Amino acid sequence: MGAFAEIMFGGLFQGSLYAMMAVGLALVWTTIGVFNFAHGVFMMLGAYVAWQFVSLGLPIAVALPVAVVVMAGVGWILQASVVRPLIGRPNIVLVVVITTLAAGSLIENGVLTLWGPRSKQLPSLLEGNTVIGGVGVSLHQIAIIIITPLILAALWAFLNHTRLGLALRAVAQNEDASQLVGLNVTALYGLAFAIAASLAGLAGIFMGGYRFMTPVMGSDPLLKALIVVVFGGISSISGPIFAAYLIGFFEAACSYYFGLYWTPALLFAVLILMLMVRPEGIFANQSRGLA
Amino acid sequence: MSVILTVEGLTAGYGRVTVLHDLSMEAGRFGNVGLFGPNGHGKSTLLRTVSGLLKAKSGSITFDGEDITRESPRAIVGRGLIHVPQGNRLFPDLSIADCMSLGAFSPRARPHEAENREKVVKIFPKLAERWRQRVRTLSGGERQMVSIATALMSHPRLLILDEPTLGLAPKIKDELCASVQEISKGGVPLIVVEQDIEFLLELCPQLYLVNHGTVETEIKPGQSIEHSEIMSMYFGH
Ligand SMILES: Nc1ncnc2c1ncn2[C@@H]1O[C@H](COP(=O)(O)OP(=O)(O)OP(=O)(O)O)[C@@H](O)[C@H]1O
Ligand SMILES: [Mg+2]
Fold it and tell me: Would you say residue B73 has pLDDT above 70?
């Protein structure tokens, strides 16, 4: 019973964070066709911005939405400065890897200078602990487990049941045709980045509520999000969501049975095996496009 | 009828390569306009410049009395100048219904969405049967229908069709030609690029031969023209 509860709980919790990160990465890939290597930095910055508002005296319930909005702006600006000017280049995928890495490292060092190297922590969303199935868990983590699927469902509904969401999916598939029906392609690119940055920032705030924050706190989640996206297929957002939870459960089971030390190695072993069998991702249908 | 589109002294191209040289033409005075000419001589480039996908290097484009030379494709769509590009792949993973919603995206087209959808269903009854089907699974002819239908959803004041029948089998081609005729009779003026000269002559009272990136010959209504004469324009002098 204890084992089951622990793995269930750990999987749901890690899966939530991975999903929140991976979805943004996939959204940017499907709409613009680039990989954003500043995505982990978005996560970190979201946590620091929220921390700044909290230390100015705002309650976390206010600081959180404000920081998420700020992150939307940051995502938009990053897109306008290091991605948009390069669109149309033949080698855009590689160039954007470099420009987003560069921008990310600039932001990371900016944060280090501005807020210092000392670890910080955000208040929990909910204070207190409880015991479920013999495992002690914090209410903060339970809140994350519940909130994340709601946010992801909202994103899915936005993409699939609104005209603006339809426009985002369209621009992913054919830029010329999008322009010829009057879509504002640059604004849609900005929107994709803004949504991705907000979700990453939110994941950072979630994480900052139970672990110490550092300027490099986003690098491991970025790596995990990349793995998730490779697992789930980069062609959709539902693929990465399922893959995120799957990997969450896998990690939770591994660290329960084999220990934390072996978990990354086992994860990569499974990843490599899977790439040999299904290179397009477990949940991918061969096509590219959001859904 | 009055002139709706004027192109004057247009020079345009890709990067450092200039494709259009000092090209001038107008549309609307006599109804539909047909463009023809050998492959690779700039017909599609002209249309892409008119709809704002390509920036003009010099010259001017006037639509409905207003200069649109430097406008974005979105602004131009917003004016009702709608372009169906050559070999449009459209949106492979969207359904026909989604494409229709996108066609009606601009604020100008939105209020006419229901009325235009009825028109589309009337002109292309085939599409109504497969409203939920993804574009990638459609045949070439069906995809061309969806392209034109999407343009109709944009409530065009001038509709540009770049080789609507390219690569289609005779039967489906005839069907499509009939649909284009119907759209024209419905009161939307057209600019059409076509390799099928019979169809072009039937549809367009005014023709331009585009050669080496410029208008080489203009054929106005009343100027009787033989099929063979056009063929000789095509194939050499
Ligand atoms: N994206 C592009 N980049 C560079 N050159 C291009 C591009 N598209 C077209 N061209 C060149 O511009 C010239 C004119 O091409 P365009 O497509 O306008 O001709 P066309 O008259 O429409 O031909 P077709 O009848 O085959 O469609 C050609 O030499 C072509 O190679
Ligand atoms: Mg052409």
Answer: yes
**Does B128 reside within a domain?**
no
Cβ pair A170:B89 closer than 8 A: no
Mean pLDDT of A209-219: 93
A272: in domain = yes
Put simply, the answer to whether B98 touches A182 (Cβ < 8 Å) is no
CB contact under 8 A, B89 and A183: no
The enclosing H or E element of B20 equals strand B17-27
B157 lines ligand 1 (CB under 6 A): no
Domain count, chain A: 1
Cα separation, B61 vs A53, whole angstroms: 52
Q: Is residue B162 situated within a structural domain?
A: yes
Task: Give domain status of residue A282, yes or no.
Answer: no
Domain that holds residue B172: 5-86+156-235
In a domain, A285, yes or no: no
Q: Give the pLDDT confidence score for residue B227 in this predicted structure.
A: 67
Secondary structure of residue B214 in the 3-state scheme:
strand
Q: What is the CA radius of gyration of chain B?
A: 17
Provide the token pair at B233.
């324009």
For residue range A50-60, list pLDDT tens digits in order: 999 999 999 99
Phi then psi dihedrals of residue B2, to 5 deg = -120, 165
Classify residue A95: in a domain, yes or no. yes
For chain B, give the percent of residues with pLDDT over 90: 84
In this structure, what CATH number is given to the domain that contains residue B35?
3.40.50.300
Q: Which of B82, B84, B94 sits opposite A173 (nearest CB)?
A: B94
Q: Helix-strand-coil percent breakdown of chain B, rounded to 5?
A: 40, 25, 35
Q: Which of B91, B134, B146 to mutate to test binding with chain A, by most A CBs within 10 Å of its CB?
A: B91
Q: Is the complex ipTM more than 0.90?
A: yes
The answer to whether the beta carbons of residues A209 and A125 sit under 8 Å apart is yes
User: Could you tell me the CATH number of the domain that includes residue A109?
Assistant: 1.10.3470
The CA distance from B142 to B146, in Å, is 6
- Residue B58 placed within a domain: yes
Domain range for A199 is 2-277
Total domain count for chain B? Answer: 1
Residues of chain B in contact with residue A176, where contact means CB-CB under 8 angstroms, are 53, 85
- Nearest of A166, A155, A192 to residue A76 by alpha carbon: A192
**pTM: predicted TM-score of the whole model, two decimal places:** 0.88
